[in-house]
Design goal:
By secondary structure, the protein is an alpha+beta fold. The chain has two domains: 61 residues, Winged helix-like DNA-binding domain superfamily/Winged helix DNA-binding domain (Arc Repressor Mutant, subunit A, Orthogonal Bundle), CATH 1.10.10; 54 residues, Ferric-uptake regulator, C-terminal dimerisarion domain (Dna Ligase, domain 1). The protein is built from five helices and five strands; from the N terminus they run αααββββαβα. The strands form two sheets. Strands 4-3-5 form a three-stranded mixed beta sheet, with no helix packed on it. The protein has a two-stranded antiparallel sheet with strand order 1-2. A hairpin with a 4-residue loop joins strand 1 and strand 2. Helix 1 packs across helix 2. The radius of gyration is 17 Å and the shape is flat. It starts with 7 loop residues before the first helix and ends with a helix. 18% of the residues are buried. It binds zinc ion (ZN) (2 copies).
């Protein structure tokens, strides 16, 4: 855990993401974490920005939704495997992602973010599809 303290609202949002079985949009999060002091979307967005800076939460760009980080990265860049059917997300880390990004960007380009999202169908959904 890093320096800046989490507020009660941050903790509620983290809890909602931790309990979710799929990525949640900011509005999904508000539905699940709403409380007397947490009731406006802007509060959720502000908290999510902080939690992302802390590396506790990731945004899945293609889904415009958020997941709780599954572990610490030790400086690596996380990638995500996303099932199109059940929307489950598995986080992975591979140091090659940073090298690929750097070689793709080329000299003089300042990389701000690298987002690797792999889409397909998970084993459970594939098996369910074969059975029906
Ligand atoms: Zn992570
Ligand atoms: Zn699936």
């Amino acid at each position: 855990m890093k320096e800046s303290a989490l507020s009660a609202n941050d903790e509620r949002i983290l809890g909602a993401l931790g309990a979710a079985e799929r990525p949640l949009s900011a509005y999904d999060i508000l539905d699940r974490a709403r409380s007397g002091t947490l009731k406006a979307p802007v509060q959720v967005y502000r908290s999510l920005a902080k939690l992302q800076r802390e590396g506790l939460v990731h945004r899945i760009e293609a889904l415009n939704a958020f997941v709780r980080c599954c572990r610490s990265h030790h400086g690596g860049r996380p990638g995500f495997v996303v099932c199109r059917d059940c929307k489950s997300v598995r986080e992975f880390e591979d140091e090659r992602l940073a090298a690929i990004a750097e070689s793709a960007a080329g000299e003089g380009f300042a990389i701000e973010a690298v987002s690797v999202e792999v889409f397909g169908r998970c084993a459970a959904c594939r098996h369910a599809g074969l059975a029906s």
